[in-house]
């Protein structure tokens, strides 16, 4: 039987989905800046958009033609905005955990192999609105089903 999530359940899933989208955007901006820099050979040996990025760029900005420089700087501004948004979403998530608003996430995060990020995804996507009747159902919903192992393969010639 299919159980449709409620509007509240669907809304609770927005936080980690937005964080995932922002992370993809951050990677795309970083890769784009790196690709644009390779066009004129100032290959960065630092993390683009990181702590030392502005100093590195100030030293090498004159090696790049003006139009490309403007494009890289606009891309850098977008990267800075995305990084700020990632920090804001992560801070909101940490605040919810610290205030005890997400007890199941905190409980799962105490397990050895599951961190806060994985616990958040498990709670919101798997355990948030689905109800499991036995221990095999969560595994099968995640694709963790046992398979028949063949000990040897016999081929007739």
Please explain how this structure is put together:
The protein has 157 residues and is mostly helical. It is 62% helix and 0% strand. The protein is built from 7 helices and no strands. It is elongated. The mean pLDDT is 84.
What topology emerges from the helices and strands here?
Blueprint: H1 7-12, H2 14-38, H3 53-60, H4 66-98, H5 103-109, H6 116-127, H7 136-141
Helix pairs in contact: 2-4, 5-6
Mind describing the biggest β-sheet?
A: none
The total strand number stands at 0
State Rg: 23 Å
Helix/strand order, N-terminal first = HHHHHHH
Low-pLDDT residue intervals, each spanning 5 or more residues: none
Strand-residue proportion: under 5%
Question: How does the overall form come out from the CA principal axes?
Answer: elongated
Q: How many angstroms separate the termini? A: 47 Å
- DSSP helix count? 7
Mean pLDDT: 84
Structural class: mainly alpha
What is the number of independent domains?
A: 1
Produce a short descriptive summary.
The chain is mainly α and 157 residues long.
């Amino acid at each position: 039987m299919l159980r449709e999530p409620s509007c509240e359940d669907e809304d609770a899933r927005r936080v980690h989905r937005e964080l995932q989208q922002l992370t993809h955007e951050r990677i795309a901006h970083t890769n784009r800046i790196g690709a644009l820099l390779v066009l004129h050979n100032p290959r960065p040996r630092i993390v683009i958009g990181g702590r030392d990025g502005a100093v590195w760029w100030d030293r090498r900005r004159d090696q790049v033609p003006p139009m490309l420089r403007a494009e890289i700087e606009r891309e850098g501004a977008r990267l800075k905005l995305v990084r700020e948004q990632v920090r804001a979403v992560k801070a909101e998530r940490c605040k919810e955990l610290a205030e005890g608003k997400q007890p199941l996430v905190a409980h799962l995060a105490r397990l050895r192999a599951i961190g806060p990020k994985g616990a958040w995804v498990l709670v919101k996507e798997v355990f948030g609105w689905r109800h499991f009747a036995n221990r095999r159902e969560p595994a099968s919903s995640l694709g963790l089903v046992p398979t028949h192992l063949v000990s040897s393969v016999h081929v007739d010639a």
